[in-house]
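Work package 3, deliverable 3.1, input record:
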Amino acid sequence: DTAVSQTPKYLVTQMGNDKSIKCEQNLGHDTMYWYKQDSKKFLKIMFSYNNKELIINETVPNRFSPKSPDKAHLNLHINSLELGDSAVYFCASSQGSGGGNSPLHFGNGTRLTVT
Amino acid sequence: AQSVTQLGSHVSVSEGALVLLRCNYSSSVPPYLFWYVQYPNQGLQLLLKYTTGATLVKGINGFEAEFKKSETSFHLTKPSAHMSDAAEYFCAVSRGWAGTALIFGKGTTLSVSS
């Protein structure tokens, strides 16, 4: 029944490793997002996909690469992890092509800790 | 460019007291405004949203917010706080057109004491 589900919930890894976070939504939404929440709880948009097409790509290091195999899935792959990547990463989805009055539905987050 | 400012990073109230969380926005176009709540170790949950029409918007859990264009504000209120209201609250504004994402304020932590 979970609307937006992310895996894993916790991810602890060492600097330099490569890791992936997966996200799936069963709401039938066309648009999906990745947000990063830092230690001060500030939320910042990273990427957005509409029907598998990248529509938002904020200033994010090239080490972060999103992939959307279909409109219900949006994964985030991170290469060469750095200490500063430690944060909570949230997946979200919305109806239509995003923006406007469509609220976002969020997953429960993936807490990434880089040591 | 759109932005939101949440005044007060931390608000403390007693159980049964009025809750007031402040949000001011900046937008070059008529804004769409949202309030979200985040409980510990969870994702964000929509409390309410303003798009057009009635400026007093009612949401879940007894919360409401009033859109005041003249003051560029969208403050969140609840007449009587419950212990279960303790959480992080985020105000957000939409850039208003397709292909954009919500822009969030920095959040306000609400503490409720008995």
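The two ends of chain B are 41 Å apart (CA to CA).
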